[in-house]
Design brief:
isomerase, MDMPI_C-term_domain, 8 helices, Nonspecific Lipid-transfer Protein, Chain A, isomerase activity, Four Helix Bundle (Hemerythrin (Met), subunit A), DinB/YfiT-like, Maleyloyr_isom, 44% helix
Length: 250
């Protein structure tokens, strides 16, 4: 797997924002987004562009506390025709904010790594997943670079223990059961359910249940709940995988 620098992730986040804006340009903003029940494309844009602005403000200020996103003026245009362009603005200001400080500088973050570098990775994958949401809503083919997707799967596993808004995450523990996620392109992880929490490591080994997918991009969509695994791709205890997926929804 590729090892990413903070600067590379910040640049990739900008690229993904521009890609998402391209997908949305000229589309009907009232189109429902099935992956995000209750949202349409307008809601998807508002959320994603709002998160970009929220994070950029906190990183610029090296905020010691969480800013209230609902209290911020995001400057969203009144006319839906301007939504894609509003989203695209983040391709410039977000990487600039992320690169304005040392990646090791402390800043508020909800994950375990409370430094600026947390946010370059989080914003890259926040944007990738929501670009996928837009493509699925519009019936477009989904395409994710394999290096980006592999980092996205690992980032999901890294941040999952800190997703405290889903109480079921705390149930992801056990007596040593293992769940293996394997991509045909080479990336692979084994998750071990310990008595206190789960742990994961890069490994090509099978587990008590093994999910095999053609690509890391396919695995990324499965772990984020954007697609179901193919039945033939599950080896071993399918019930264990279903149990994991139900409790790891964030």
């Amino acid at each position: 797997m590729r090892e990413w620098s903070h600067a590379e992730r910040a640049a990739a986040a900008g690229t993904e924002i521009a890609r998402m804006a391209d997908v949305l340009h000229g589309e009907d903003m009232s189109t429902p987004v099935p992956a995000c029940p209750g949202w349409d494309l307008a809601g998807l844009v508002s959320h994603t562009g709002g998160v970009h602005r929220w994070v950029a403000a906190m990183v610029r200020d090296l905020a010691e506390r969480r800013y209230d996103r609902r209290a911020m003026d995001m400057g969203m245009p009144a006319d839906a025709d301007g939504y894609a362009a509003w989203l695209r603005e983040g391709a410039v200001f977000l990487p600039e904010a992320l690169l304005s400080h040392d990646p090791q500088a402390p800043v508020w973050a909800w994950g375990g790594d409370r430094r600026v570098r947390f946010w370059s990775r989080r914003m890259l994958h926040e944007t990738v997943v929501h670009r996928i949401d837009a493509e699925l809503a519009l019936g477009l083919p989904v395409s994710v670079d394999e290096d980006v997707a592999a980092d996205g799967v690992e980032e999901f596993l890294d941040v999952l223990p800190y997703a405290r808004w889903n109480p079921a995450v705390a149930e992801l523990r056990g007596a040593g059961e293992t769940i293996s996620l394997q991509a045909g392109t080479g990336a692979g992880w084994v998750i071990t359910l310990g008595p206190g929490r789960f742990h994961h490591r890069r490994s090509p080994q099978p587990g008590d249940v093994t999910l095999r997918a053609a690509t890391a991009a396919d695995l990324l969509q499965v772990v984020w709940g954007r697609r179901d695994p193919d039945d033939h791709a599950v080896e071993g205890d399918a019930g264990l995988l279903a149990w994991w997926r139900e409790r790891s929804r964030i």
